[in-house]
Amino acid sequence: MLNRLFGRNRKSTNPKLKNLSQLLGFRPGNFALYEQAFRHNSYVNQKFPDEEGVLSNERLEYLGDAVLDLVVAEVLFLSYPNKGEGFLTETRAKIVSRAMLGDLAVKMGLDEMIQYGKGLGNNKQVMRSLSGNALEALLGAIYLDKGYSFTRDYILKRVLKNYLDIHELALLEVNFKSRLIEWSQKMKKEIQFDLAEEKIKGRSKIYVMSVKIDGLELGRGEEFSKKKAEQEAARIACIHLQIITS
Predict the structure, then answer these.
(1) What is the DSSP string of 24-43?
(2) What are phi and psi for residue 167, nearest 5 degrees?
(3) What radius of gyration do the chain's Cα atoms show?
(4) 2-171 maps to which CATH number?
(5) Where would I find the beta strands (DSSP E) of the chain?
(6) What is the tally of helices (H) and strands (E) in the chain?
(7) Which of 160, 142, 159, 161 is nearest to 151 (CA)?
(8) Using CA of residue 135, residue 140, residue 146, residue 148, what is the dihedral sign?
(9) Which residue from 154, 151, 175 is spatially nearest to 163, judged by alpha carbons?
(10) What are the domain boundaries of the chain?
(11) N or C terminus: which one in the chain shows less Cβ crowding within 10 Å?
């Protein structure tokens, strides 16, 4: 098994994981992998600044991202035999977007399992982002521990089936930016979208866009394109302004 390459079971150093088996729906083999999956880099930097061998979840996140992409691509390919590459790519992008993964992770309760640095837990947007990253890292851990077939079934039955309607999402096309601009014009408010930050994830660049209403920041979104990041920032602002409910 792959888990033999990545250490043996040992006593947990994360008390948040005492009910992990119940949350996952299966018994982990190599528990150390799952501890790593929920260990954010900020926690490692604060708690183990000079200690080698204590890894954050970034490598597992990279692996889980690739596994999730493959599973979702396969599901869409089989579910929509008459749809073209453009539809499949766009629908996959909706499912694996940073915003969607964050929402899924919170619904699964993964946000309660993460070890993170001081101060991060006070920001809901940051925690949702951390949770989405932890979900990908968890999938990476499951893959190393249980193999691809098990991980594929877990994604299909425990994640997508329970928390997401793929067919509904495929048909969903909501332009939150347009709705926010329409609202700001109606209310005579000044609206501004800005590039707040650029991050690197593997070989890809992630854009963090912010939206301000009359100079007050009401939302941030991070995605692999500026356009999608603006949409996510606008969505958060729309919720804040009660233009939409969720």
Answers:
(1) HTS--SSHHHHHHHTB-HHH
(2) -65, -40
(3) 19
(4) 1.10.1520.10
(5) 191-201, 204-213, 216-223
(6) 12, 3
(7) 142
(8) positive
(9) 154
(10) 2-171, 176-240
(11) C
Residue 205 gets the label, from left (phi > 0), alpha (psi -120 to 50) or beta, of beta
69 burial (CB, 10 Å; 0-12 / 13-18 / 19+) is: middle
Residue segments in the chain with a per-residue pLDDT below the cut of 50:
1-10
CB proximity list for 120: less than 8 A, separation 6 or greater: 40, 42, 126, 127, 130
pLDDT of residue 89: 84
3-state secondary structure of 220: strand
Q: How many CB atoms lie within 10 A of CB 150?
A: 13
Residue 179: how many other CB atoms lie within 10 Å: 17
Q: How far apart are CA 230 and CA 42, in angstroms?
A: 26
The residues that are catalytic are: 65, 136
Q: Looking at residue 120, what is its pLDDT?
A: 81
